[in-house]
Please model this.
Amino acid sequence: MPRPVRTRFLRLAAALVLTSAGAVAAVTPPASAATDAVSVTVNAGQALATIPSAGVGTNAAVYDANMNGSATPGLLSSAGMNAVRYPGGSYSDIYHWQTGTAEGGAFIAPNTGFDAYMATVRAAGAQPIITANYGSGTPDEAAAWVRYANVTKGYGVKYWEIGNEIPGNGEYGAQWETDLHASHSATTYATNLLQFISAMKAVDPTIKIGAVLIPPGSWPDGIVGPGDTQDWNQTVMSIAGPKIDFVIVHIYPSSTSEADMLTKPQSVDPPTMNAVHSLITQYAGANAPNVGIAVTETNGGPHYSDTAPQGLFAPDQYLTLMENGAFTIDWWDLHNGTDCTNLTTVDGATDYNDGGVVSSGASCEPALNTPFPTYFGTEMISKLGSPGDTLVSAGSSTPLLSVHAVKRADGDVDVMLINKDPNNAAKVKLDYHGFIPSSCTPTVYTYLKNGTSITSAAGGRATSQTVPAYSVVVVQVRP
Model:
């Protein structure tokens, strides 16, 4: 079964696409860029955020026959993925959970029903994130799902989205999202959203319900649709902001090269997240402090889907979004699949044009569930910190080396160093504020370019490390 086409806010015709930070030119690092010493500063006393319990997530889709395979819980757990979104992107707006069917007879794989999904999520120790069917569903259908999940079965599903990428319903001239309502306006969505909230919370008032927004600065943000007096985000937030528990954005940075893609966590994420925070502050009123931000779809783009650049991009993207206030970031997706055409070679490895975290086992691919670099890059986050630990301020003297740091509950400070230079190792000098590092040799975890595992060893010093070209390193430092 070919994978369904995924069209996203930032994947429309080039004439329509604006990135949230404007155009960013491709950056080709000079050959000697990382050969000089790089200065890294870690301020252990300056907290940015707490690693959230559902911070590192992925998506699972009901057309994926392998989503509930016996290997899946272990894969999720080993990678530190503690959230799984279901039933899968645009399929969410055609999927009817009670019958396990989809509008138009769309393909649903065997063993992908809600209970099978919950068995997988619980076995992995992860949290479920459910996207209720807005496009072809009703508030009563969604409320019945809450009742079954949390009253009948006692699953305790906390997070519920209302619809997927609803602004793609044709209101602004492009349609990829199913929406059978007579009106496709932002006003209609926001008004219906209140009905969903009322019906679902009447069943379980403890659940958290999220509203779909457009990533600020991305098409069609700023466009006022027919029947509305403001753009999508302003309309939805002005009507529903006081009642929602979180907002939803999907972030797919558009890039022109490997080097350009690797700049996106720093150039796109902070301004996008700042703009979302501003919308919440402006429109949610007294409810604003209670409204979270969920990035329920992201990845690095279609050009380097499952090779070395994604292994660097993934941890940088997850951590930057957490540092800027996201409580969950869910990679698209666990198994994505490919049609085995347009295969390319990237940094000496075959790119299968498969955006999944692990192989779908297509005829041209490695065996089913073979981890791609995205998987290992994501797993490196678990070496840096755990839910409840504190993300702290850290910076680098060069954009070719991204830095993230965590102060653990036991007092350790761990530092992630991501070397984006494909040719040169980085000699890194680390300076700490608010923390005195031990003179003992630190434990160092390393994921190398095109690696098939993460290695660990005692090496270097707390104040001095060498980071190989195109690698991710985590240095665990005792006080």
Notes: The CA atoms of residues 197 and 209 lie 7 Å apart. The radius of gyration is 22 Å. Residues 1-34 have pLDDT under 50 and may be disordered.
